[in-house]
Amino acid sequence: MTVDEYLILSQNASTLGITIPDYIRKRVTGKALPRKRILLEDRQLFIELGRIGNNINQLTKKVHLGMKHPPMLINQLAELKNILDMLKSNIVKSDCQAD
Q1: Which of 59, 60, 73, 96 has the fewest CB atoms within 10 Å around its CB?
Q2: Is residue 88 within 8 Å of residue 51, measured between CB atoms?
């Protein structure tokens, strides 16, 4: 990758308020990119919530593959994921209202 290509990539990711690896991952896999930029003060929170969500997804996959777990783990993981999704949605909505 040339320096100019990296700068373009960095600017595109920054404009959308996501990390460079997340930007590349979404572009390569054809997943939708965010429509709105996340405010700077909310960006780190949004990134951390995404990481937490990824960890929850990994635990959920292990549970579905038969990992020993307490009976309520699946329900608790689903509830936690819903809460994280709601928090992320609220961040995006508050940013949209600020525009």
Answers
A1: 96
A2: no
* DSSP tag of 69: -
Q: What is the pLDDT along the chain (99 residues), one digit of tens a residue?
A: 888 888 888 888 887 878 889 999 998 998 888 776 666 667 777 777 777 877 777 777 777 777 666 666 777 778 888 888 888 787 776 655 555
State both tokens at 84: 């994280």
Instruction: Say if residues 34 and 17 touch (Cβ distance below 8 Å).
Output: yes
Residue 5: both structure tokens together = 């290509």
Q: Which amino acid is at 4?
A: D
CB–CB of 15/33 below 8 Å?
no
Q: What whole-number distance in Å separates Cα of residue 49 and Cα of residue 82?
A: 12
